[in-house]
Amino acid sequence: MTVDQLIDWFPISATWPGLTFLLAVLICAVPVFLFIAVYALVVIYGELKISSFMQDKVGPMGQGVGLHAWRWGLLQPIADALKLILKEDIIPAAADKKLFILAPFIVFIGAFIAFSALPFSQTLIIADMNIGVFYILAVSSLGVIGLIMAGWSSNNKWSLYGAMRSAAQIISYEIPVALSIIAVIMLTSTMSMQGIIQYQSGLIWGFLPNWLIFNNPFTFVAFFIFFISGIAECNRTPFDIPEAESELVAGAFTEYSGMRYAFFFLSEYANMFVVAGVAATAFLGGWQSPIPGLFNSPAWGLWWFMSKTMFLIFVMIWFRWTFPRLRVDQLMSVCWKGFTPIALVNIFGVGIWYLTLG
Amino acid sequence: MGVVQGDQMVLNIGPQHPSTHGVLRLKVATDGEIVSDIVPVIGYLHRCFEKHCENSTYEQVIPFTDRCDYIASMNNNFGYVVAMEDLMEIKVPERVEYIRVIMAELNRIASHLLALGVYGLDVGAFTPFLYMFRDRERILDIFELTCGARLLYNYMWVGGVSHDLPVGFVETVYNFLDYFEPKVQEYNDILTYNKIFIERTADVGVLLPEVAISFGVSGPNLRGSGVKWDIRKEEPYSIYERFDFDVPIGQGLVGTTGDCWDRFHVRMLEMIESTKIIRQALKDIPTNGDVHQALPKKIRPPKGSIYRRTESPRGDLGYYIISDGSPQPYRLKMRSPAFTALSVLNEISRGWMLSDVIAVLGSLDIVLGEIDR
Amino acid sequence: MIKYLTTIWETVSTMLTGMGVTWRHMLAIRRDNVTLQYPEERWPRPERDIGFDHNKYNVIRSRLHVDIDDCIGCLKCERACPVDCIKIDTVKVPNRGEDIPNIRHKGITSFGTRKAMVVTRFDIDMTECCYCNLCVYPCPEECIYMTGGPNAEKHDIDYEFSEYDRNDLIYRFAKKVSGEDLENATTKPQGVEG
């Protein structure tokens, strides 16, 4: 189901095309927003529990009655969200008010509109653009503007540091992300998300699903480059230098509180989903079942896509609770001296592979 | 076109900051990320320890020494009672000496665990911190078992210790050591040899031996620079000359000798050495004996003064005591190792990045309670 | 080039080692868990038997307690306290070792000492207490102790004490009597002398 189908389906589309377009977009946007909210609650709970288990703790556990966190602390993320919503919204007197208020929404919008090109299943995609991957890469870097706005408008030195760091980081990591996706696009010859997934049907070497990660050694490497650079784009540990709570207090978010702070969090989790979703689409076959030919209905497709995405998000959480944080210059050198050259070699290698063996 | 001139930005790290290890304030002059000058501002935790001591009796000083280096209270008590016993020429029973050594070394492990764990936190690794706290908690359990307190013990007294060891103490400590020794490998796996951690700490904040000596840096920070100096070996107090242990020094395994990683690693090795000492002490400890036997009826040292130093987990911990023959010290001065360690911060982290300042500060393992006193 | 590749290899291998550690801990959470669910589960207090009476002594340095009937008002604990959180006032009794019923004063301690003083004020400010235990040792009657000290069976060990009012943390152990009663009891009755 796409926006285009929706528009066609409206009987009034011929008379008021603008109105129907707006309606269709709204109809799509509301469920996506709800999905992000619910998904964020689930992942926050997952993060709390996974991190606790890794640290020999049990995490949130409510055992009493009433407003406790229920069994196994299942209500903990809801309590967290409630707390953030109810908290006082503080705007520093010296802050640039307009930018300060605007920043969290811009960050969120960057993550939010990327969802419109994510193929949740064979039929469930909001807009299957012919430049789907390109679109996602483009809009997901919108968030950096919001971060810089947040850092600058807070009128706080820590925020400024965080903003400058995140600007450098996110813009740099766009490059290995894009380069590793180019390797994929060269093979699939399409930038449409559905097209990339359809390319990955069938088997390779007789037993492996024909996912691009297994296609050839170069795409295998490209997957890791994409995934790790993607983590850097979401500002997750070991690349969380814009936030860096032991150095910069809370980085760009230092002055934020309550709902605005929650929006930064929401967009971080939404960004994680986008990165994991694109990685699952481009390298792990998206909604393709691991056993080709079996369980390939759209409903199963949703299941496969979500499980692949959630697995990648789990790996991100796993990273976060294992590694120390890189320094800002090391972060840059990993990007420019590590990932970018390897990604370039990869493109070359994929080209050779495609010409000789493909 | 005018020349573009960058201004320096002065950044206040602390007194409320996640990684200043207490209430330290660092006035940092920065040019972008590069730090050009650091001025530590101390005194936020000043509690007039030395003046207080002049108005307390000699027994009452011991709880105050607890509160100086609150991470290693046993070692602080130890330094004070060693000085007092020398001043009063008290010979403490054999069992007391062993108890003291066991306690001091256990506390050294606990203190190093905290230092290493918090250092992990400073460079952004959360999980090792909790692993180390998990194991530190077991040591605190042993202390609670022995003297009823978990952090501020007031355990060592002039001429003895406050309680005898409980029944089953030796087995408890053996159990702990058996549990703890394999855990060091786990810390190494998750943090010490992690490449990101090495990148963050190797070659950063190199403390040259000459600089360290001229600043009076001591303890693991000095040994991290490759100087083999340990009061337990050089000027053995108590019964340390009976034990067989090494003094680990930094060798620059992954970077330059004297960098943050070396200081970190020396602490890691020292914990293993401490377990060796504890094992030997547990083997030789006399099974009975009155721990209160040598307690003086009244602590009233003869006129005179004494300076004794001991090896606390942070370095040379010195007590200078002047007695005028009354039950209260005329003057008591504490030479704090963390203070000298902090003084070297500006020297070794100038020119590095903001993140490195945090890393260097963490690697020096300062305790503000001891610096401000 | 070789250095470049070895760096990559080191990075990958050490990071995988670290991830292995957290993975193992995550799977073995049931075995490794160290959390106690606090209000429901309590930290087990250390089993300990040592000191004055091996069966009775179970030390946790928690709040101070005074068995006021045993206190002879010698002020030794007040002098031992490094932070001066103990305040004691005493009044001389007319006849040493005699009970004075109307102010509920017991004349003889459980150690058999005949008391010469009525303790009219025995305040311990627990907000100031530094839990050093120094007041416990000089006491000749062993009547001041951290709960969990000697006579532990009389008092549950409780290390959770919080109050809404700071004044509630000043523990007043002396018996509440009116000033008039006290005056009558501690001055020698008229006409008896001689």
UniProtKB/TrEMBL annotation, chain A:
Mode of membrane association: Multi-pass membrane protein
PANTHER family documented for this protein: NADH DEHYDROGENASE SUBUNIT 1, NADH-UBIQUINONE OXIDOREDUCTASE CHAIN 1
InterPro entries (alphabetical): NADH_UbQ_OxRdtase_su1/FPO, NADH_UbQ_OxRdtase_su1_CS
PROSITE patterns xref list: COMPLEX1_ND1_1, COMPLEX1_ND1_2
Subcellular location, principal: membrane
Molecular-function GO term, any one: NADH dehydrogenase activity
GO BP: any one term: aerobic respiration
Keywords for this protein: Membrane, Oxidoreductase, Transmembrane, Transmembrane helix, Ubiquinone
HAMAP family tied to this protein: NDH1_NuoH (MF_01350)
Name of the molecule in the record: NADH-ubiquinone oxidoreductase chain H
Enzyme Commission number(s) of this protein: 1.6.5.3
The keyword Acyltransferase appears for this protein: no
Pfam families for this protein: NADHdh
Source organism per UniProt: hydrothermal vent metagenome
Record-annotated membrane-spanning stretches: 20-45, 99-120, 132-152, 173-197, 203-228, 269-288, 300-319, 331-355
Compartment(s) where it occurs, according to its Swiss-Prot or TrEMBL record: Membrane
Keyword Transmembrane listed: yes
Gene Ontology CC: one annotated term: membrane
